[in-house]
Amino acid sequence: MTTLDQQPARAEGRKDPWSQLLVKVGKSQDRQAYHSLFEHFAPQLKYYAMANGMASHADELVQEVFVSIWRKASLYDWQKAAASTWIFTIARNQRIDMLRKMRRTSVEMAVETEDLWQIPGEDDNQPVTSLHRLMSERRVRESLSQLPEDQITVIAKVYMEQKSHQIVADELNIPLGTVKSRVRLALSKLKVILQDQNV
Amino acid sequence: MTRHHPDSLSLMEYSAGNLSEPHALCIRLHLDKCSHCRRQVDTLDSLGAVMMEQQPKVSVSGAMFDDILARIDSSPELKPQATVPPKTSLLQKLLGEDINNLPWKRQLGDVSVLDITEKFPGQNEQVVLQKLVAGGKAPAHTHRGTETTIVLQGMFSDQKGVFNQWDFVVLNEQDEHKPIALGSEDCITLSVLSAPLKLTGTFTRLLNPFIR
Question: What three-state secondary structure class fits B83?
Answer without folding.
Answer: coil
